TrEMBL record:
SUPFAM superfamilies: Helical backbone' metal receptor. Residues 57-341 form the Fe/B12 periplasmic-binding domain. The keyword Protein biosynthesis does not apply. InterPro entries: ABC_Transporter_SBP, ABC_transptr_periplasmic_BD. Residues 1-21 form the signal peptide. The keyword Transferase does not apply. Keywords: Signal. This is ABC transporter substrate-binding protein. Belongs to the bacterial solute-binding protein 8 family. It holds the Pfam family Peripla_BP_2.
Length: 341
């Protein structure tokens, strides 16, 4: 208890000193071109967030959030990043190099405190815990707004909004917070067009009234496959392109299953998420192909025998600014496999 009390006091003092320093900074209140004069409130996972001025020292707690802010051109407003899972794409590298890395993996409360943030952004709620960056309640008490992707809490979004629309609402909400509304709106508009393009062939995929089934193989750990369940983004990707996720009956994002269960679903084709940059055993596409070829049951599936396999970057199968790229690869791969008439 004493340790937590000291941490809270220290964080209060550091954040207070940051606010004073910001008040003396000539860049305080600077907003990107197209920013509105008044700072509107935004909402995030059922919470209303208020800003006296656009954030100047944002910290992102995961790679997804980092790349979203970089795509919005906000690297000069970032005081730290954390939790890098794969290499930063070439288009973001120069901007990323300008932002301090406060933690190579998941950030702790101490590491976040040292960055003196005025805004914290994360893709999921599980990064805001007492043993990680601190709870949202703790940070709110210290006047630090915290943002969570709407994709991680769809119950607080508009009824019936698709995961991609929730993702696009993230861009728009963050654009309002930083005064980058025009850039955020442009990004959402561009990615909506990419989703629409991927959906163009969906109506022609059904054969005998049935959509082709797909298994998404995300990782293989200790010999066991992890696949996309109903609540993950791949189920929505499948719907958009006119396919059906074979594990839609499992209420998880990435459940562990057995190879026998994969074989029982008899997917028409398989999507492999290549996570080779992460570097864990079973992460690369080549290792996943080998695991399927060596399994006595799965190796007999027509999808494996006939190489009806599509490879996409694994990180793009989780909601991020890069997910529309994986969606495009999925649509193109289905066309190459003959599923789009």
């Amino acid at each position: 208890m004493r340790h937590r009390a000291r941490t809270g006091i220290a964080l209060t003092l550091v954040l207070a000193s940051t606010a004073v320093a910001a008040g003396c900074s000539p860049t305080t209140g600077r907003a990107p071109q197209g920013a509105s004069a008044a700072r509107p409130d935004i909402t995030s996972c059922g919470r209303q967030l208020s800003f006296e001025r656009p954030p100047e020292r944002a910290v992102t707690l995961d790679q997804t959030s980092t790349e979203t802010l970089l795509e919005l051109g906000l690297q000069d407003r970032m005081a730290g990043t954390a939790n890098l899972k794969t290499k930063i794409p070439a288009q973001y590298r120069d901007a990323y190099a300008k932002v301090p890395v406060i933690a190579p993996k998941i950030a702790t409360g101490e590491q976040l405190r040292a960055a003196t943030p005025d805004f914290v952004v994360a893709g999921s709620t599980d990064l805001y815990t007492k043993d990680r960056a601190g709870t949202r309640e703790e940070l709110a008490a210290l006047k630090v707004p915290t943002f969570v992707s709407a994709v991680d809490c769809p119950q607080h979004g508009e009824a019936g909004k698709s995961p991609f629309e929730l993702l696009f609402s993230d861009y728009e909400q963050l654009g309002r917070a930083f005064g980058a509304e025009e850039r955020a709106a442009g990004l959402a508009r561009e990615q909506r067009a990419a989703v629409a393009k991927a959906a163009e062939g969906a109506s022609g995929t059904a054969r005998d009234g049935e959509r082709p089934t797909v298994v998404y193989l995300y990782s293989v750990f200790n010999g066991m496959p992890y696949v996309a369940g109903r609540t993950g983004l791949p189920s929505e990707m499948s719907r958009i392109v006119g396919a059906r996720n074979a594990f839609d009956d499992m209420e998880e994002d990435w459940p562990e299953v057995s190879w026998e269960e994969v074989a029982e679903r008899e997917p028409d084709f398989i999507v492999i998420g290549d996570l080779s940059e992460r570097g864990r055993p079973g992460d690369s596409a080549a290792e996943k192909r080998r695991a399927m070829a060596e399994d006595p049951v799965v190796s007999e599936l027509a999808a494996v025998r006939d190489n009806r396999i599509i490879e996409v970057p694994g990180i793009e199968l989780d909601p991020s600014v890069r997910s529309v790229h994986a969606l495009g690869l999925l649509a193109a791969g289905m066309k190459d496999l003959g599923y789009v008439r």
